[in-house]
Design goal:
Blueprint: E1 19-22, E2 25-28, H1 29-32, H2 35-43, H3 63-71, H4 78-96, E3 114-117, H5 124-134, E4 139-143, H6 159-167, H7 172-175, E5 179-183, H8 204-215, E6 218-221, E7 235-238, E8 243-248, H9 253-262, H10 287-293, H11 297-302, E9 305-308, H12 314-322, H13 328-337, E10 341-345, H14 347-360, H15 365-380, E11 388-392, H16 394-397, E12 404-407
Parallel strand pairs: 3-8, 3-9, 4-5, 5-8, 10-11
Antiparallel strand pairs: 1-2, 6-7, 11-12
Helix pairs in contact: 3-4, 9-10, 12-14, 14-15
């Protein structure tokens, strides 16, 4: 993992002074918050910034830097983070090299869109949000469940381009070089194999409408979105250089893969393959499984990179509680510290919270619900614990007793 260092003051990345990327250069929060440095940084030509419309200079970063940014907030999922980092890096390298390619060079690098498969709460949306925080490129996160085929009640597919246009501060050039993350893509699967029964306006109809946008075409969008302003002028956006990342839980896809792998084969000596229910079969997915799920072949062909995420186990859930920069434990400790209350957790209590989250089967999102339930009474009485230390024990997590209240002068070793 490459070490991030501010190119102005050369300080290292830390919790108190994090490192960000601006215009392709590492810069710490302290330097960037300095108005004089910020003005020089945004206007000086030595930073290779040609104009305000230019995108991040990817000559100064590597895929390892992108993965390191994801590591700060997303626990585990190394294979998916590596694929996503390489795809984003190659995409913007492709864009940045367009202007300097030799005119006689007839090799054109094609765009590779991404499909993320994984159970709910495994970090698909968080990866897109982390890239939005880390990169100096506009990003829009849309939900496929609200989209319908044009002419029906609901959002038009073109609205996802409008959101990116608004995220780019209505800058057409930056919009055409942004990232669009379409969540819940599995919810627009084809309802029925028989297309003649009825129009699937929120399923196959949306998939058909997405084809040209994802592959690359000129799209007319309304700046304010929707059909509520019919008299506004349309803006043309070229989607050829927009990177599309689609994510979905694809609940039930593992069963389709199991049937494909475990079906009987012909012959006298043929044996049915044994299926391990504990194994993550999403890693073995292919295009035929996605078609059986209800995704049309034309859309599958435009999502070239398929990355799968693992279900979160207890160790990963424990790391999610502790390690990310914005982990729940750090957030609650900061909230209590504002009232001069020290909050600590026993290791056994943290493991119990992680196991409770796994039992809920909603991924890492279950952690916040559990923590809110545990902390609500403590936060309600927080003024009673001023100048004290609260220790959350396993008995408190199970509801058997109150948390340990320790005066600061008493020194007790807590894990």
């Amino acid at each position: 993992m490459s070490k991030k260092e501010c190119f102005i003051c050369h300080c290292q990345d830390s919790k108190s002074n994090p490192i960000y990327i601006k215009k392709g250069y590492f810069i710490c929060q302290n330097c960037y918050s300095n108005k004089e440095i910020e003005n020089i940084f945004m206007n000086n030509d030595i930073f290779d910034v040609q104009n305000e419309d230019s995108i991040t200079n990817f000559n100064n970063i590597s895929p390892k830097d992108l993965k390191a940014a994801l590591d700060d907030y997303v626990i585990g999922q190394d294979n998916a983070k590596k694929l996503l980092s390489v795809a984003v890096y190659n995409h913007y390298k492709r864009i940045s090299q367009k202007d300097i390619l030799d005119d006689n060079d007839d090799v054109e690098i094609a765009k590779s869109n991404i499909l993320l498969l994984g159970p709910t709460g495994s970090g698909k949306t968080l990866m897109a949000q982390t890239f939005a925080r880390f990169l100096d490129v506009p990003i829009a996160i849309s939900d496929a469940t609200s989209l319908t085929q044009a002419g029906y009640v609901g959002e038009d597919v073109e609205n996802i381009i409008t959101r990116l246009y608004q995220a780019a501060d209505c800058d057409i050039n930056r919009t055409q070089k942004g990232i669009i993350f379409i969540d819940e893509i599995d919810k627009i699967a084809r309802v029925s194999e028989n297309r003649s029964i009825t129009r699937d306006v929120s399923g196959e109809g949306v998939q058909q409408a997405l084809l040209k946008i994802i592959e690359g075409s000129i799209v007319n969008i309304s700046p304010q979105g929707g059909r509520k302003h019919p008299h506004q002028e349309f803006i043309q956006i070229d989607t050829q250089d927009i990177l599309f990342i689609c994510g979905g839980a694809f609940d039930g896809l593992s069963d389709i893969i199991k049937r494909r792998l475990g079906r009987n084969t012909l012959g006298f000596n043929s044996k049915k393959k044994e299926i391990d229910d504990k194994k993550n079969y999403l890693h073995l997915v292919d295009s035929s499984d996605l078609m059986n799920y209800g995704i049309i072949p034309e859309l599958i062909g435009r999502l070239h990179i398929i990355a799968t995420l693992d279900e979160i186990n207890q160790d990963a859930m424990l790391n999610i509680l502790l390690k990310p920069k914005n982990s729940l434990i750090k957030q609650y400790q900061k909230i209590f510290r504002l009232d001069n209350v020290e909050l600590e957790f026993e290791e056994k209590a943290l493991k119990l919270i992680a196991q409770k989250a796994i039992d809920r089967k909603t991924g890492a999102r279950a952690l916040r619900a559990i923590m809110e339930g545990l902390m609500v009474d403590l936060m309600f009485d927080i003024k009673d614990y001023v100048n004290s230390k609260l220790v959350v024990t396993s008995d408190f997590v199970e509801g058997k007793s109150a948390p340990m209240l320790i005066k600061k002068k008493n020194k007790k070793k807590i894990i």
